[in-house]
Amino acid sequence: MTHQLHLGVFFTGVGPQLLWTDPAFAAHTHIDTFVQTVGTLERGLFDAFFLGEGLRVRENRGRVYDLDVAGRPDAITQLAALAAETSKIGLVATQNTTYNYPADLARRLASLDAVSAGRAGWNIVTTDNAWTGENFRHGGWLAHERRYERAEAFVETAKALWAGERVDRHTDLVDVTAAPTVTGRPVLFQAGDSPGGRELAAKHADVVFSANTAYDKAVAYASDLRQRLVRHGRSPDAVRILPGAQVVLGDTAAEAMEKAEWIQREQITGPRAIAFLEQYWNKDLSGYDPDGPLPDIEPAEGELDPSRGTISIEHRTGKLERIAEWRTWGVSIRELAIRVTPRHNVFVGTAGQVADEWARYVRDRAVDGFNIIPQLLPGTIEDIVDRLVPALQERGVYRTEYTGSTLREHLDLP
Amino acid sequence: MALHLALEVDGDFASLPDHVTAAERAGVALVTIADSPLPPAGGGIRIEAGVRAAFLARRTSRIGLAPTLHATVTEPFHLATQLASLDHASLGRAGWVVGAERSRQAYATVGEPPLAGAELRRELEDVIDVARRLWDSWEDDAVIRDVATGRFLDADRVHHVGFTGARFSVAGPLITPRPPQGQVVVIGWDTLGVTSRLDVALVGGGTVDEVIARARRAREDGAPLVFASVAYDGGSGLPVDRLVGAVDGVHARVSDLAVDLPRLLTETGPRPPLGATLRDTLGLPRPANVFANAGQEPTA
């Protein structure tokens, strides 16, 4: 049988992707919006619904960042509520291993697995962000280079408790004595792309939520991951690869392209472009015209402000060199922001075109599916379920009914 | 005056939704959900109470849902987020039974030494205080969606809480907008020593006189509502005529809900009608926000 695509929706809850300026925008924190969304996804035979995590409201220069949607529920609480509204779809909570207690989080995840009858997933993330840590008892305690060491000990603790074993583990990274209270087997997702993240995935993950969406990168990533799996004594087919993706569909290719450009302009507004640069300059740039040249003043000393919570590791240092390079581009502030915003993960076209492209990905085993990040709520998901899903089914690369009832069964995992 | 009725539930999850919907139909104001980070003494599994409550939120429409979350063995920020989320998912029916699990084994699950006495009481006060501040950290009208200026939020209406307790600090704001009830209904035993911070105090005692005396003391200590918490096995009978006027409700811990609920309903008589939110049901006002009209905070 042809390999099948697996689809999830990654509901970030914050950030510029989701267009709140759309007049039809549904309150993204209201429970009714979530209930309708997961209902649509079940109709579209999706594997999973994901919630993101961010444990501090984003800021810009010491003030709450006001330009993006913000506000999100506790992921496990929300997914437990949604478990009562659904019967098939997987429910995946992003939860970090730095600002949680291992036995406490393991218990809550297993509890979600229990109330959903085997539909829980855990997207394991790490953080070393001390600014986020200011909301927690043990804020900022974990050194960057040890975050995956902690994550691995944490995951091992959780797995042991889920298997019904007692845990008695005392190191400088994990201190826990606990007996199992709920057993279960949540599906483990891993999203980190650093070598540490890839090793954690190779040892423990069932699914990777990878950042490598472009075809060539996806192929290279899949090959790297399969080698790591074999090195750890696992089957090269033990892990499903689902990179993040945005989808923009139109009746014609031209219409889809036009819509995609409109979405991008809405996502990167003038005020957002200014705020983006303020992270680098660490100065008030509100007096600058977003359609004018880059600020002529020098940036403040020091590295990037972590309080937007979105800066990738490789962008945290070397800001002066980066700014110097940007100045050679001769673009406006907003053009710069558009140019440096990753677009590699956007699929634009008719349903048939995107379905053809995705069929190639899965046929070549570059990916096992995609995690879709919606821009319009409602809109994106309805488009995909009503137009893209039938096109994928016609090509024989997507299920026409649920054949199992647990997330593991949907993902064809052991 | 009619007494509110609250029921403690625990045990088998499979039958729980049916029991709670039966209680809702009978006009029970709320269920409290017992919990512990330790396995049940008699064996078997115990699903975390907040997860059970969230599931029940979507299988019920009027009954209050109050999971026990232990302030001692969790992160206060997560606790506040979980309860706010339960209130959103249930459209305003969340309560919180302040748990104070303090055994050495419970603390060992988070790698901490046990607290006791004044230290423990201070810790409970701090966790309640920070949860209440976090629930207020978004004002009700913080989301403005102002297309003209491109602002989704009014940053002046989303507040750092800047809380510093004896053993932890929390910067805030909460990641979740203000709960529909404004503040989740905070329920706890009078013996915790935090009665002034509760919305509903639970009192018990070996005799009816003792229950009544403790109820009087809880009111003097500032509890807006007091419930008599009783172990009910259907045999002994409840002194309802003496409790009316002395307490606002009965919190019954029953051994077998299916058997005991019908008797309990008969004995306690008519109940006040259920409102749209738990606060409405209990006649508790929706609290003003402590940050409202605070204006722009000084930059950090």
TrEMBL record, chain A:
Domain Luciferase-like: 29-293
Keywords carried by this UniProt record: Flavoprotein, FMN, Monooxygenase, Oxidoreductase
Xref: Gene3D superfamilies: Luciferase-like domain
Amino-acid positions noted as binding FMN in the UniProt annotation, renumbered to this chain: T94, H144, Y148, S194
InterPro entries: Diverse_substr_monoxygenases (IPR051260), Luciferase-like_dom (IPR011251), Luciferase-like_sf (IPR036661), NTA_MOA (IPR016215)
SUPFAM superfamilies the UniProt entry points to: Bacterial luciferase-like
Superkingdom classification of source: Bacteria
Molecular function GO labels: monooxygenase activity; oxidoreductase activity, acting on paired donors, with incorporation or reduction of molecular oxygen
Family, as annotated: Belongs to the NtaA/SnaA/DszA monooxygenase family.
Protein name as it appears in the record: Alkanesulfonate monooxygenase SsuD/methylene tetrahydromethanopterin reductase-like flavin-dependent oxidoreductase (Luciferase family)
Source lineage: Bacteria, Bacillati, Actinomycetota, Actinomycetes, Micromonosporales
UniProtKB/TrEMBL annotation, chain B:
One Pfam short name: Bac_luciferase
InterPro entries listed in its UniProt record: Diverse_substr_monoxygenases, Luciferase-like_dom, Luciferase-like_sf
Molecular function as annotated in GO: monooxygenase activity; oxidoreductase activity, acting on paired donors, with incorporation or reduction of molecular oxygen
Domain Luciferase-like: 12-186
Keyword Flavoprotein: yes
Keywords (A to Z) from UniProt: Flavoprotein, FMN, Monooxygenase, Oxidoreductase
Residue runs in coiled coils: none
Protein name (Swiss-Prot/TrEMBL): Luciferase-like monooxygenase
Taxonomic lineage from the root: Bacteria, Bacillati, Actinomycetota, Actinomycetes, Micromonosporales
